[in-house]
Amino acid sequence: MHARDIGLYGILVFAMAALSSAAAAFEQITSVSPFMKACWRLEVTAILQIVPMVYEIRKDPEAVKTMIRDCWHYLLISGLCLGLTFSLWCWSLDLTSIAHSLLFSCSAPLVVVVAYFLLCKKVAPLEIVGVVIGFVGLSVVIFGNSESEGSTWYGDVIAFMTAITLAIYMLIGKKLMEKCVPMWTYLTIANMEAALWAYIFAVAVQGDAPIEGIQWIYTSDWLIVIYLGLVPGALGHGAINWLLKFMSCLVISVFINFEPVIGSFIGWVVGIQPPPAIYTYIGGAIVMAGNLTVTYAGSKVKIPGDTEEKFYLDEEKGKTEEMRESLLDDNDNDEGEKFERRISRKHSFALA
């Protein structure tokens, strides 16, 4: 293995550790409701993304104007889904164990395949097998709940609702990335809007005081909130997006599927997560097998003339957009459909 590859894998391990630490960090905040925790995290992430957003706007203002003019409805739905994702996930952490919360919320790849099936898009047989395996594992986890583990069936259901809203967010992100929209501008707008939705949910549903939206600035929780926005948010997700330029999406997604394991271990080390029950081990292994099967099946969708394992949008050269247009304009609709399915796999993980 070359030194460059070792460095890339080192960055990937760091990114996974950063992402997996979020659940334990959220559990340390006890002064506000789960929805307000989500609001705080999204606020900080949006603030940290303003600098690259400004750079994009100055570099290509017309692209930003076009995105807002033509894709405003996607932006609205995307921000709502992202706000729901973090709000529901933080709520699930209060109602069930970290292990269960991460297992159910990380099952978004299964939901994406189901969505493709319901939308009458082609789904590979192996993807269907992966979905069946995944839902069998989820059933084992939810029906094997253990009070000693701190898990509940209703907390598991809320965590799974997180996977549904995340899947919608991923599909919208895929649609926008196909249009080569400015990535940082899109992500910043989505996080800002999501923070606003989480704030509305916190005040209207959970009764938080309106002033609590900025309370993290002057309370003892400020360091944890900064950590959540910077390390799991900006650095963790940013590293995953950057690594997609150099590494196979399959390799990255395999690492991502281990987030429930790493997150549960971190929770146990810091003393806020008891050892998982036996059904969590069994069901969790089955769920991960289902996710990996879906990931592998999606990675095997090939495009004529495509010999590389990785496939990344190159906005400057326009390679992806040109290939997409040439394939979709072709009379062979089956190949165009394959392209759409494969590019969705790539951006699903980039925007997770």
UniProtKB/TrEMBL annotation:
<keyword id="KW-0472">Membrane</keyword>
<feature type="region of interest" description="Disordered">
    <location>
        <begin position="314"/>
        <end position="340"/>
    </location>
</feature>
<dbReference type="GO" id="GO:0016020">
    <property type="term" value="C:membrane"/>
</dbReference>
<feature type="domain" description="EamA">
    <location>
        <begin position="10"/>
        <end position="142"/>
    </location>
</feature>
<keyword id="KW-1133">Transmembrane helix</keyword>
<protein>
    <recommendedName>
        <fullName>EamA domain-containing protein</fullName>
    </recommendedName>
</protein>
<dbReference type="InterPro" id="IPR000620">
    <property type="entry name" value="EamA_dom"/>
</dbReference>
<feature type="domain" description="EamA">
    <location>
        <begin position="154"/>
        <end position="294"/>
    </location>
</feature>
<feature type="transmembrane region" description="Helical">
    <location>
        <begin position="250"/>
        <end position="272"/>
    </location>
</feature>
<feature type="transmembrane region" description="Helical">
    <location>
        <begin position="152"/>
        <end position="172"/>
    </location>
</feature>
<dbReference type="Pfam" id="PF00892">
    <property type="entry name" value="EamA"/>
</dbReference>
<feature type="transmembrane region" description="Helical">
    <location>
        <begin position="222"/>
        <end position="243"/>
    </location>
</feature>
<feature type="compositionally biased region" description="Basic and acidic residues">
    <location>
        <begin position="314"/>
        <end position="327"/>
    </location>
</feature>
<feature type="transmembrane region" description="Helical">
    <location>
        <begin position="71"/>
        <end position="92"/>
    </location>
</feature>
<feature type="transmembrane region" description="Helical">
    <location>
        <begin position="184"/>
        <end position="202"/>
    </location>
</feature>
<feature type="transmembrane region" description="Helical">
    <location>
        <begin position="6"/>
        <end position="26"/>
    </location>
</feature>
<feature type="transmembrane region" description="Helical">
    <location>
        <begin position="126"/>
        <end position="146"/>
    </location>
</feature>
<dbReference type="InterPro" id="IPR037185">
    <property type="entry name" value="EmrE-like"/>
</dbReference>
<feature type="transmembrane region" description="Helical">
    <location>
        <begin position="98"/>
        <end position="119"/>
    </location>
</feature>
<keyword id="KW-0812">Transmembrane</keyword>
<feature type="transmembrane region" description="Helical">
    <location>
        <begin position="278"/>
        <end position="297"/>
    </location>
</feature>
